[in-house]
Write a structure and sequence with these properties.
Strand order of the largest sheet: 1-2-3-4-5
Distance between the termini: 76 Å
Helix content: 25-40%
Order of helices and strands: HHHEEEEE
Number of helices: 3
Number of strands: 5
Largest sheet: 5 strands, antiparallel
Strand content: 25-35%
Length: about 190
């Protein structure tokens, strides 16, 4: 009887260990899956947002990465289409975009993720539109980059950017020798 009890406990303890390890592997797999999907949505969505603001083209593509509530309340996107954008007087042909993800977290059992990113757009190349020549400067205005806290949500199996809060402003230097200055955004 004593040997049967020891043998049963030996089998049960090994099954418990195997179940715990299996659970950790499954949890890790789904966490990596969520993080990979969020990473792709962030990088492609944020770059597409900048492209739409600068060129005012392919705005429908934003629906793949952004939630409707975010798109309807984004002032930069609204300014691009109502003529309030400083880039409306220019035909932008090229730019250098960089997005640095500082922090990214998504639990495998949650339907939301949070992250902190730093966005910069350098070397914007473009020309003044023909009907505004002489009225606006020839140099394309610098992009006002920043550090953002971004919230994403998962709806119907798809991750979308739901909210974006700017926590710091990054002012692009006028020349290569100047260092990037970081300022706190003004509270409105």
């Amino acid at each position: 009887m004593q040997y049967l009890r020891r043998f049963t406990w030996y089998i049960a303890s090994r099954l418990i260990i195997i179940c715990i390890l299996g659970g950790m592997l499954v949890c890790g797999f789904f966490m990596c899956l969520n993080l990979a999907n969020v990473y792709i949505i962030l990088t492609e969505g944020m770059e597409k947002r900048v492209e739409v603001i600068l060129t005012r083209e392919d705005a429908q593509e934003l629906n793949k990465c952004f939630h409707y509530d975010f798109l309807s309340n984004d002032g930069a996107l609204a300014g691009a289409f109502n003529g309030a954008s400083v880039y409306g007087d220019y035909n932008i042909t090229d730019y250098d975009y960089s997005l640095d993800i500082e922090k990214l977290w998504a639990w495998p059992w949650d339907n939301y993720a949070t992250c902190t990113v730093v966005e910069e757009v350098k070397d914007i190349t473009g020309r003044v539109v023909s009907n505004r020549t002489g009225e606006v400067p020839d140099a394309v205005p610098k992009w006002q980059g920043g550090r953002y806290d971004i919230t994403l949500s998962k709806e119907n199996g798809l991750w979308k950017i739901r909210g974006m809060q700017q926590t710091a402003i990054i002012v692009e230097p006028d020349s290569e020798e100047e260092a990037t200055a970081t300022q706190e955004p003004n509270e409105t």
